[in-house]
Amino acid sequence: MEAYCKVLIVEDEMLVRQGIRFLLDWEKEGFRIVGEASNGKEALELVEQHQPNIILTDIVMPIMDGEELVRIVKGLHPEIEIIVLSSFGEFDYVRSTFQSGVADYMLKPKLDAASLLAVLKKTRERLPIEHHREWPDDRQHSLDYILDRLISGYSIDYEAAPFQSELPYSAYMLLVVESDDASAAAKRNEDWMEALLKAEVQRSNKPIAIRRLATLDGHIRFLLNMDASNCDEVVLLAKELLESAVNTSQSLCAAISRRFDRIGQLHEAYSGDILNMLNHRFFLPDRRLLLADHVSEPQTASATFDLEAYSNELNRQDFHPALHRLDSYVRSMPGRLDKDMFEFKSFLGHSMFNMIVALLHFHYEANALDQSKYEYLRSIHEAKHIGEVMPLLESFMNEVMSCVDRSKTGTSGIQKILHYIDEHISEPLTLTEVAKQFHFNPSYLSNYFAVHNREGFNEYVNRVRIEKACKLLKGSMELSISEISSLVGYSDHSYFTKVFRKQMGISPSHYRKI
């Protein structure tokens, strides 16, 4: 009979999950966390796998929310008790979960160790009589609990002697496996991986102890304990695992830390060696086995991106050279170990964003591209390796070149009109005068402007003038407000003040002071 009351945590925010995990000394209080899920769909799979006694779940989550999770779990497993976590504004959802039979609910902003423990113990009493047992109140920490605390960077007092039989050797290495398949099937393969590794150790009769640690953010983690002379065997084990994965049509990547001599160094091995290698893996899409001793930053500096030249090209409307510069830099990324994945993704997103801003500033017809920019940024953020970024950039470049080429073939007449207005904004501009410049009659220009621009003629002229006035008010303190009024095309100071107040909500003098 199991000694602990099994708890499953369901929360979409990783930091909140981690906070809950370390809010209590779970095993000392008679509980054990048997799994974590980031949404209801993942939780349902873990329910079948681990059969928890209690589920601690958030309400608002992607894919499947807590409300639906409660309804399904109570329908399939009425014996499982559920505690709902919610924010202040979610009580309507909480009310519906009570109708499905939840045991209790807690407000996340007020979550603390004492309150959580009280609710857990109260909920444990609701379990069916066949689940009741003598829950341990004060027993020695299990090895799993200690390793979970250590790899997460928390300090904990422990004695190594009781675990000598489970980790009998002098050296340690950390093996972390990451799947390119984020599906539930990949998560279920944790058991298969552990069984394969242990079977291979038994077949080869090598003195290696294998301990599977808690999976975190898709990282399936194994602690391997061996004599220092057998470290090379860990690499062979990883290769065997990857080869077996290929034979079963799985796409896996494995990372192995440097050897360390104390389990107290577990966090350093994971957060230093492993995460650094998996970060580099973004630029090494074809590398399936990463070794900490072999993945290191090059001694010579690689080519850098000339951001100043890129900005100048955008300002000169030299979009083709700017795109070529960006494309060449991204194509130099595979195999580079001097770049951080997150910094690179941020750089690329900003570069694409700045190009869209330049297109709009110079009045190219880039509204469709502007609307799709967040989809590009999201896809870049989610890309697992540089190979997934290449087609995204190519698609973006094609859209940019299409915008530019349309204007050159004369299909973007509105751009020429807007550019003329910008160049002559300090002059007395009227619809009639601008129409004469482009050989239109005023009525046709008014309709044309309304169809091809988001603002009417007068609205656009006033907005551009006020934007220029704002820059002068902040950047040219030696100019009086009356002088600024004339510089942006308003001969009537009082009318300028009226238009400024309408657009900005305050007077020009007040704007200058803030």
From TrEMBL:
The keyword Phosphoprotein applies. Keywords: Cytoplasm, DNA-binding, Phosphoprotein, Transcription, Transcription regulation, Two-component regulatory system. The modification 4-aspartylphosphate is found at D58. Residues 6-123 form the Response regulatory domain. It is found in: Cytoplasm. Pfam families: HTH_18 (PF12833), Response_reg (PF00072). This is Response regulator transcription factor. It comes from Paenibacillus hexagrammi. The lineage of its organism: Bacteria, Bacillati, Bacillota, Bacilli, Bacillales.
